[in-house]
TrEMBL record:
Subcellular location: Cell membrane
Entry keywords, A to Z: Cell membrane, Membrane, Transmembrane, Transmembrane helix, Transport
Protein name: Iron ABC transporter permease
Keyword set includes Transmembrane helix: yes
Similarity remark: Belongs to the binding-protein-dependent transport system permease family. FecCD subfamily.
Transmembrane helix is among the record's keywords: yes
Amino acid sequence: MPRPGSGAADRLRFSILCLTLALLLAALFAASLALGDVPVSWRALAAVLGGGSDVSPDARMIVVDLRLPRVLLGALVGMALAIAGTISIAIMRNPLAEPGVLGINGGAAVGAMVVIVALRDPPVFLLQASGFVGALVLAAAVYLLSWRGGTASLRIVLIGVGLSALTGAVTSLLAATGDLAAVQRAMIWLAGSVYDASLLKVERLLSWLILPAALTLALARELDLIAFGDGTAKSLGQPVERVRALMILLCTVISGAAVAVSGLIGFVGLLAPHIARRLAGPAHLRILPVAALVGACLVTAADLLGRLVIAPGQVPAGIVTGLLGAPFFIYLLWGRRHGKG
């Protein structure tokens, strides 16, 4: 029986957790705006953000035109990947699942590679559209091929892995036969980065994510139920197949939009949900906002590290998250093998 006042204390702890993560994200924002191959002093940064008139045009251009869109886009991409990863883990009941299992990453990679190799220098909007359409097509293929009078998590995972391998082969074939300059541009996109961010991209991604993210949060209880297993969820009155189909659609829309603007930034959809679960507990109503904040922090920090490690050169954020995520993935595998996960 819960102690009197324990609910209020629990809500207070959750509020403190969210506030702490928000402050961490704000600190990463400030560092990302100030630091780089051309540093901006903290005083100049405060003046730019405060709308001061005694700021040099160079400092204003660096902060407002170059770094601010990049930081905002990175945070949005991190939030989107974290939410999509939380959905994937819940509907597949597999702690090693991430949006890539649904074919989203592979489909986006093929779509973008085809456009880049075929047109050599495609407009940005076409590259984003091709990546998004590729993600949607592969996710639909995974779902339809896994249908046998219903879907099952294991079939989705196995078919997703198989189709992802196929898309990897197609991507490699295009890379081997395409124009060298076009292939190099494609490889940069596939590495995952927000270096070409703009406020227009930020606005478009934000407007695209608001509705599906809000709907996912509203359906948090459905994620709690389906995570227990199909039998348990059905016994509690959940229409499992319809919920799973809707959640796969939301995951694809959210993750596909993020991949379309940033390329393949891996492991955020795996890292953020697990960290959020450790911090916030098992309820998805709490996991989702915490995972979104953690994902934003991860991508923002990865982009900042990528800009500082070999400045003035840059390491794509996707490579940094890969270096961080691979050991964590191995840890999860080890924990499951020894009964810890």
